[in-house]
Amino acid sequence: MTPNPLAGREPLLVLLVEDNEDHAELIKRSLAENRVEKRIIWVDNGEKALHYLLHQGEYHDPSTNQRPNLILLDLRLPRIDGLEVLRTIKGNPELQQIPVVILTSSAAETDIAKAYEFHANSYIVKPVDFLKFTRLMDDLGFYWLGWNQQPNCLNDTR
Question: In which band, very low, low, confident or very high, does the pLDDT at 6 lie, cut at 50, 70 and 90?
Answer without folding.
Answer: very low
